[in-house]
């Protein structure tokens, strides 16, 4: 739980949340890579897993930031990589609903 919305007001809380996000992204990526997907879904899901790995590294960097400025750069980049709209190709390859 964060005590403040702004990183400047609760760096330890935001770093803890960034660590939890990094851990969740690692688990998500591992799960995607371990599943035997249909042939048509393999490439889009591999792309998604790769994007999640990149995001995880950025969230991990944010979790280790020493100040708010060092937190924001990887946080912003990592957040962009987990945009739900970027998952649409992977979801479409599995044929479920793709509207957020």
What does this structure look like?
Helix content is 70%, strand content 0%. The chain is built from four helices and no strands. Helix 1 runs antiparallel to helix 2, helix 2 packs antiparallel against helix 3 and helix 2 runs antiparallel to helix 4.
Q: Percent range for helical residues? A: over 70%
Oligomer: single chain
- From N to C, what is the helix and strand string? HHHH
- Please state the average pLDDT score: 92
Radius of gyration over all CA atoms, rounded: 15 Å
End-to-end distance = 26 Å
- Shape, principal axes of CA atoms: elongated
Strand fraction band?
Answer: under 5%
Biggest sheet: strands, sense, closure? none
Output the structural class. Answer: mainly alpha
Number of strands: 0
Poorly predicted ranges (pLDDT <50, ≥5 residues)? none
Number of H/I helices: 4
Brief summary of the model shown:
The chain has 100 residues and is an all-alpha fold.
Key features of this structure:
100 residues, mainly alpha, 70% helix
